[in-house]
């Protein structure tokens, strides 16, 4: 992963042409390293939330409601 300044259009185009995919999250950080760390945290939170929903009481309640 690579972090770019929002205004660096030329580098974004070059990276896209090289096969990189744009992520649409915009993160404000004091450095590129901090931006990448925050992005990883966001992705981890999303995965944790999805897992908790799929294995938690909410999912069980939905399944029970459908089966009744």
Notes on the protein architecture:
The chain is mainly alpha-helical and 68 residues long. The chain has one domain (9-67). Helix content is 65%, strand content 0%. The protein is built from 3 helices and no strands. The chain has helices spanning 9-17, 32-55, 57-67. The radius of gyration is 18 Å and the shape is elongated. The model has no long low-confidence stretch (mean pLDDT 81).
Q: How helix-rich are the residues, as a percent range?
A: 55-70%
Q: Count of helices?
A: 3
Cα shape:
elongated
Q: Give the percentage of residues in beta strands.
A: under 5%
Q: Mean pLDDT, rounded to whole units?
A: 81
Layout of secondary structure:
Elements: H1 9-17, H2 32-55, H3 57-67
């Amino acid at each position: 992963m690579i972090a770019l300044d929002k205004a660096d259009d030329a580098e974004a185009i070059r990276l896209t042409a090289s096969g990189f995919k744009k992520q649409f999250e915009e993160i404000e950080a004091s450095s590129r390293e901090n931006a990448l760390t925050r992005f990883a945290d966001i992705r981890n939170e999303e995965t944790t939330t999805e897992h908790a929903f799929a294995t938690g009481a909410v999912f069980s309640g939905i399944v029970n409601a459908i089966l009744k």
